[in-house]
TrEMBL record:
<dbReference type="GO" id="GO:0006508">
    <property type="term" value="P:proteolysis"/>
</dbReference>
<comment type="similarity">
    <text>Belongs to the UPF0758 family.</text>
</comment>
<dbReference type="GO" id="GO:0046872">
    <property type="term" value="F:metal ion binding"/>
</dbReference>
<keyword id="KW-0482">Metalloprotease</keyword>
<dbReference type="InterPro" id="IPR001405">
    <property type="entry name" value="UPF0758"/>
</dbReference>
<dbReference type="InterPro" id="IPR025657">
    <property type="entry name" value="RadC_JAB"/>
</dbReference>
<keyword id="KW-0862">Zinc</keyword>
<keyword id="KW-0479">Metal-binding</keyword>
<dbReference type="InterPro" id="IPR020891">
    <property type="entry name" value="UPF0758_CS"/>
</dbReference>
<keyword id="KW-0645">Protease</keyword>
<dbReference type="InterPro" id="IPR037518">
    <property type="entry name" value="MPN"/>
</dbReference>
<dbReference type="Pfam" id="PF04002">
    <property type="entry name" value="RadC"/>
</dbReference>
<keyword id="KW-0378">Hydrolase</keyword>
<feature type="domain" description="MPN">
    <location>
        <begin position="23"/>
        <end position="145"/>
    </location>
</feature>
<keyword id="KW-0614">Plasmid</keyword>
<protein>
    <submittedName>
        <fullName>DNA repair protein RadC</fullName>
    </submittedName>
</protein>
<dbReference type="GO" id="GO:0008237">
    <property type="term" value="F:metallopeptidase activity"/>
</dbReference>
């Protein structure tokens, strides 16, 4: 006879980011929150901001940490936390430690895959920001979503 594990999946809060809670109404708002979280990162971090129905960020999850110029991102890792947080929508962001905020072809391809996965799961992906040293690019504003 074989034992089958019975499991419970939960989200564990690691820490909190001190900031005022407000609805994300623009990519500039999302950049403000993402920059606060990514401050001081020396490698590429891909984060997921999970929003409630009023577009307030309830949680942030680091889906991937890469090297100086790349990170591997899989839709499974992006949406796992969003499902656990009961997010109605997400905004993804990642930093370019080089300081360049222009999206790469890989950034555009990842965005496309994440949007498709979100449609299947019923979780809207509102934007994907590429954050540079002093500016950012919204892939939605650039027409890639």
């Amino acid at each position: 006879m074989q034992n089958i594990d019975i499991v419970k999946v939960v989200m564990v809060r690691e820490e909190s980011l001190k900031t005022e809670r407000f609805a994300i109404r623009s990519s500039r708002d999302a950049d403000f929150v993402a920059r606060r979280y990514l401050e001081g990162a020396d490698r590429e971090h891909f984060i997921v901001m999970m929003l409630d129905t009023k577009r307030v960020v309830n949680a942030i999850h680091t889906a991937s940490i890469g090297s100086l110029d790349a990170t591997i991102v899989h839709p499974r890792e992006v949406y796992k936390a969003a499902i656990l947080a009961n997010a109605s929508a997400i905004i993804c962001a990642h930093n370019h430690p080089s300081g360049d905020h222009r999206p790469s072809e890989e950034d555009r391809q990842v965005t496309k895959r994440l949007v498709e996965a979100g449609l299947i799961l019923g979780i809207d992906m509102l934007d994907h920001l590429v954050i540079g040293e002093s500016d950012y690019t919204s892939l939605r504003s650039e027409g890639y979503m």
